[in-house]
Amino acid sequence: MNIKISKNPNIFYLIHSKKGPKELKLIAENLTKKHLDILFFENNTWKRLESKIDQKIFLKFRASFNLLLVSNKEELASQKAFLSVWKQYFNRNVKVIKKILEIEKRLTDTKNKKILNTDIFLVIKHDKSELGAWFSYSKNKKFIVIEIPIDHMPKNEDLFPCAILLHEFFHLLIKENKELWKTVYALRKEMPIFEELLISSFMPEGYLSQAYLGTEALKYNSEPKSLVDQRRFIANKMFDYAKNYVENNKKIDKKYLNKLMQF
Ligand SMILES: [Zn+2]
Fold it and tell me: Which domain holds residue 156?
């Protein structure tokens, strides 16, 4: 696995925390997420950003950002050490992650052998809630970002963070299968959260996660309101159905998607 503690792993944390100089915050607000994404890259970070934004803004941003790095040197070092504990945690579980990734590939009918080599960036989350994750998928740029609240240490027996990573991989795999992606994309127009519910019916709430990672079957409200509740609700309703697809080596098909649409 390509788990990386990026050179600038804490950009969002620093920008959003009180420590971020006002000026940096102001500039960051004017940059789109696309610009900030560039800062995750290991190489030519500044060159890439320079080509994308106004020269004056760029110089201000770089100076302000570098100042922030220098003035928080010690804290950044300890955050890097913290993230490396997480890197070890994910690497320790590579075997089971690989195994489940094979199942996800089968479900999405994709053959991409290099998917496990996708860059996975670990960053500090600027608020102290739950682990967060997101991905970027374009022709030249595929990566996953795991956001970890500071002070949130990994526990050996808790594999839920692996399930979160595997949820993001699932997103990438759906996009790799053009036919499946087209169908999911169309269904998303009818129900914007459709893709989330589809993946959740396997991972991290659904059968695949519970059976292979031993994650808890979480309860849901009888009338799911929040997105998390809806994901749990669907995972529960689809449990036996998802099990059948996983254990009989089936691919996600129209029948599965239709069943999901019923709820
Ligand atoms: Zn998702």
Answer: 94-114+127-132+151-261
Q: Is position 155 within any domain?
A: yes
pLDDT digits (tens, 9 = 90+) for 189-244: 999 999 999 999 999 999 999 999 999 877 776 777 788 888 989 999 999 999 99
**CA 206 to centroid of ligand 1, rounded, Å:** 13
pTM of the model: 0.86
C-alpha 73 to ligand 1 mean position (Å): 33
Does 64 fall in a domain? Answer: no
| Residue 24 included in any domain | no
Using DSSP's 3-state secondary structure scheme, residue 109 falls into: coil
| Number of independent structural domains in the chain | 1
- Is there a domain that residue 25 lies in? no
Give the distance (Å) from ligand 1 centre to CA of residue 39.
Answer: 22
Distance 65 CA to ligand 1 centre (A): 30
Interval between CA 137 and ligand 1 midpoint (Å): 13
> What's the angle, vertex CA 35, arms to CA 152 and CA 122, rounded to 5?
20
Which of 112, 116, 248 has its CA nearest to residue 174? 112
